[in-house]
UniProtKB/TrEMBL annotation:
Protein name per the record: Arginine repressor
Lineage: Bacteria, Pseudomonadati, Acidobacteriota, Terriglobia, Terriglobales
Pathway: Amino-acid biosynthesis; L-arginine biosynthesis [regulation]
Entry's family note: Belongs to the ArgR family.
Coiled-coil spans in chain: none
Function: Regulates arginine biosynthesis genes.
Tree of life domain: Bacteria
Matching InterPro entries: Arg_repress (IPR001669), Arg_repress_C (IPR020899), Arg_repress_C_sf (IPR036251), Arg_repress_DNA-bd (IPR020900), WH-like_DNA-bd_sf (IPR036388), WH_DNA-bd_sf (IPR036390)
Subcellular location: Cytoplasm
Start and end residues of each Arginine repressor C-terminal domain: 80-143
Segments forming domain Arginine repressor DNA-binding: 2-53
Family annotation (Pfam families): Arg_repressor, Arg_repressor_C
Keywords tagged on the record: Amino-acid biosynthesis, Arginine biosynthesis, Cytoplasm, DNA-binding, Repressor, Transcription, Transcription regulation
Length: 148
């Protein structure tokens, strides 16, 4: 539930200005997510949100450049958040920075690669399921190339 809530908070901050915690709490409630002020304060701290004169903002690593309306490129997301890829037979465990797993999993899902059956994202780990060991090995090499 926390990861889902964090994803919604990120989405809200990308799409609209959020002046204060009460506005953020109300916007979350409109999406069916009801939280206490204490929980929201913890979320703000965990997400490293910035507070400025206009309200809350995402750290630069999550922000979409104003001049570019497109999603960040896969290479950018993997390079910014990816730390290490480990293989266990047909499974890949992709270690990320804190909060980086969901953006990486989403980008991998959108790529629609034949080597990927599906992904499961936590906070700092993505499980990538491949059809077999050979395809997992090929995908690991590709992902390693993105994260250097």
């Amino acid at each position: 539930m926390k990861n889902q809530r964090h994803g919604v908070i990120r989405d809200l901050l990308i799409k609209a200005q959020v002046e204060n915690q009460d506005v953020l709490r109300r916007k979350l409630a409109q999406r069916g997510i009801h939280v206490t002020q204490a929980t929201l304060s913890r979320d703000i701290k965990e997400l490293n949100l910035l507070k400025g004169p206009a309200g809350y903002a995402l750290p630069e690593s999550f922000a979409v450049p104003e001049e570019d309306d497109d999603e960040p490129e896969l290479a950018d997301v993997l390079g910014n958040f990816g730390l290490e890829v480990r293989q266990a037979q047909n499974l890949l465990v992709f270690l990320t920075t804190t909060g980086g797993a969901q953006p990486i999993a989403a980008h991998i899902d959108y790529e629609d690669w034949t080597e990927v059956v599906g992904t499961v994202a936590g906070d700092n780990t993505v499980l990538i399921i491949c059809p077999d060991n050979k395809q997992a090995t090929a995908l690991k090499a590709r992902l390693d190339g993105y994260i250097g």
